[in-house]
C-alpha cells in the first residue's frame, strides 16, 4: 500500500481502522475514473487477508496475497458489470457466497466496481445485505459517478472521497508505469490532459492517441487556410464515425485553442500544455483574437459536457464545427 501514488489520507484511515479492528462493514470509494480507487481497494483487500503482514503492509508473497491479485481467493469477491449493468442475479449469487463463515481467515471481502451501474433490483437486493451486515464481510463499493449512487446505498457506507492526483504525482506515475521511456515534453502533455487521473494518463500514452494528436495538431495549425464549411462538416462526420475517440479528439482541440489563448494573455511558456509544439502555438496565437479563442474554448467545453451526458454525437460535433466556422470566418473578415 505504501507504493500507491497519492490517497495517503484514505490509506492511513483504512490501515488505522484495520489495525484497531474497527473496520466498517461497507466503504464507498468515489472519485474520477482512473484515479486509483480499485488499486487501493485491492491493496486493502490484501491487507485484510494477508497471512504474514510485514511492518504494517501485506507481504505480496503469501498464497492469500497472490490469490487476491489473481481474484481467485475463496474469501474475496469482485462484482463488476456484465454488459452495461450489474444485475440482480450477480447480487443473489454473492449473497449465497458470503453467507458462510470465511474459509481461511477472519474476513470475506467484496469489491463492487462502479456500483452506480447496478440495476434498481440489484441495488435494492444489496441494500438488504448492507442493512443486516454479516460480521465477517467487508464491502468496498467504488464509483466515479457518485451522483448516480442511490442515497440509501451511500448512507449505509463509510464514504471515502478520492482526490485528483497532483501534476507531480501523475508524472511520477508515468515514469513508474509507462512501458517505455517517454520524452519529458510528452510526459507533460499527457499529465496535463489527464486531469489528475493516472489511469487516464497511462491510457493516453498509447500509440493511437499519439498519432491522433499529431494529425489533429497538424489540422489545427492549418485550419484557417482554405477554410470552408464543407471541409469542416466532412471532418465532423469523419470524427463522429469513431465514437470511442471523439472526446479525446475534442479535448485535443480544446487544449490547442486554450494554449493559444493562454499564450496571448500571458506569454508564459510554463502554462502551455502542448509544449512540444510551442513554436506553432506562438505563431498561430497571432492569427486569433482573444474573443474568438474564448468563444471556441467555451464551445469545446460545451461539446465535452454534451458527450459526457451521452448526447447525439453527430449533432454535437456539427454544432461545434459550425460554430468554429462562424468564429474563424469572422476573424478572417475582421
Ligand atoms: Zn500476504
Task: Considering the chains and any ligands shown, give keywords for the structure.
Rossmann fold, Zinc Finger, Delta Prime, domain 3, elongated, 334 residues, single chain, binds zinc ion, five-stranded parallel beta sheet, alpha/beta
List the helices and strands and how they pair.
Layout: H1 8-19, E1 26-30, H2 37-49, H3 63-70, E2 76-79, H4 88-99, E3 108-112, H5 120-131, E4 137-143, H6 151-154, E5 158-161, H7 167-177, H8 184-193, H9 198-204, H10 207-221, H11 229-241, H12 246-266, H13 278-285, H14 290-308, H15 313-333
Parallel strand pairs: 1-4, 1-5, 2-3, 3-4
Helix pairs in contact: 1-2, 2-3, 4-5, 7-8, 10-12, 11-15, 12-13, 12-14, 14-15
The protein binds zinc ion.
Zinc ion (ZN) is lined by residues 50-52, 58-59, 61-62, 64-65.
Amino acid at each position: 500500500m505504501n507504493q500507491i501514488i497519492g490517497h495517503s489520507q484514505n490509506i492511513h484511515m483504512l490501515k488505522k481502522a484495520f489495525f484497531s479492528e474497527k473496520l466498517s462493514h461497507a466503504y464507498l470509494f468515489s472519485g474520477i475514473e482512473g484515479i486509483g480507487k480499485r488499486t487501493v481497494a485491492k491493496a486493502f483487500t490484501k491487507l485484510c487477508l494477508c497471512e504474514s503482514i510485514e511492518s504494517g503492509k501485506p507481504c505480496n508473497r503469501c498464497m492469500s496475497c497472490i490469490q487476491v491479485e489473481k481474484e481467485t481467493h475463496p474469501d474475496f469477491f469482485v462484482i463488476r458489470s456484465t454488459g452495461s449493468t450489474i444485475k440482480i442475479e450477480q447480487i443473489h449469487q454473492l449473497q449465497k457466497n458470503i453467507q458462510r463463515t470465511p474459509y481461511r481467515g477472519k474476513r470475506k471481502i467484496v469489491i463492487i466496481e462502479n456500483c452506480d451501474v447496478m440495476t434498481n433490483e440489484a441495488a435494492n437486493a444489496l441494500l438488504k445485505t448492507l442493512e443486516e451486515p454479516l460480521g465477517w464481510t467487508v464491502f468496498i463499493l467504488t464509483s466515479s459517478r457518485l451522483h448516480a449512487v442511490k442515497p440509501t446505498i451511500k448512507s449505509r457506507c463509510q464514504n471515502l472521497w478520492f482526490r485528483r492526483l497532483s501534476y507531480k504525482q501523475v508524472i511520477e506515475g508515468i515514469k513508474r508505469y509507462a512501458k517505455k521511456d517517454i520524452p519529458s515534453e510528452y510526459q507533460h502533455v499527457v499529465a496535463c490532459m489527464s486531469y489528475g487521473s493516472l489511469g487516464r494518463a497511462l491510457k493516453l500514452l498509447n500509440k493511437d492517441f499519439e498519432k491522433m494528436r499529431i494529425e489533429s495538431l497538424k489540422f489545427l495549425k492549418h485550419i484557417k487556410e482554405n477554410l470552408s464549411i464543407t471541409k469542416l462538416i466532412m471532418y465532423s462526420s469523419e470524427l463522429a464515425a469513431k465514437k470511442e475517440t471523439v472526446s479525446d479528439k475534442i479535448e485535443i482541440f480544446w487544449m490547442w485553442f486554450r494554449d493559444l489563448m493562454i499564450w496571448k494573455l500571458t506569454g508564459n511558456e510554463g502554462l502551455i500544455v502542448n509544449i512540444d509544439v510551442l513554436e506553432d502555438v506562438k505563431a498561430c496565437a497571432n492569427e486569433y483574437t482573444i474573443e474568438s479563442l474564448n468563444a471556441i474554448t467555451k464551445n469545446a467545453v460545451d461539446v465535452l459536457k454534451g458527450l459526457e451526458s451521452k448526447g447525439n454525437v453527430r449533432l454535437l460535433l456539427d454544432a461545434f464545427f459550425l460554430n468554429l466556422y462562424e468564429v474563424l470566418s469572422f476573424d478572417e473578415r475582421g
